Amino acid sequence: GGPGAEAAQAAASAGAADRAWAGHLVDWFCSDRQLPAAAWREELERLSVLVIESGSFRNLLQQRAAKLTDLDLIVLDECHHAAKKHAYASVLHGYNPDIPGMPQVLGFSASPAGGGSTSVVEARVDALLALLHAQMHVVHEEEVQMVAPSPAEEEQCVDPRSVDIHMHNWLLERVVWVALTIGQDLHAMVEALPDSAAATKVELLRCSAELDYAFACTKGAGNQGELLAWAAGARMLAATWRLPNLALCL
């Protein structure tokens, strides 16, 4: 998957028609695990099924390292993205089923046309089918259950990438900045309140003290858990008192 958003991939069943299928080897490639252009032919001969990020495969086509006719079958997940400048559209730009050796294309989508009026939806579906040179088949849940068991959830822990660490640190810096901004706003409000608003002052001072404690925990241990816990309680305060920074940041 990718940042964001979208993690659309193209899975291509590779190899010549007369190749041996013993082993049914499968491998995957993406932006974090690139398939070099020079290795395309070797991987094509080695693998039965090659799963590759659509942008990576588009680059191989543009570099003329790969050809659509190298493949027997192209499977597109979330195929409704095949429009405008998306990599799917680029990959299929030169696709013509009438050319000898062209692979078959199988697209999957749970939302082939998105929202809109009936005419808009029909136009989008027609455009998608024309691009894929395909016909639509609606699969019902009962049909899926006949050939495939219900999927099981599985959680896997992986080592963080450098981009993940960078994003974590950036978010932590933002949390600290939010805490400082809210703290300044709380202190300013306490100073501006008249003596007659003693109960309000007590409430704001309590919230400010809790923020100071949470901020100290975050700064010392590098863990924003205390700060986020404080933020949950601060939402209730923001709903009661007019605190622009709280409303903005939470």
From TrEMBL:
Residues 49-112 form the Helicase/UvrB N-terminal domain. One of its GO terms (cellular component) is cytoplasm. It comes from the Eukaryota. Pfam families: ResIII. SUPFAM superfamilies: P-loop containing nucleoside triphosphate hydrolases. GO terms for molecular function: ATP binding; DNA binding; hydrolase activity. Gene3D superfamilies: P-loop containing nucleotide triphosphate hydrolases (3.40.50.300). This is Helicase/UvrB N-terminal domain-containing protein.
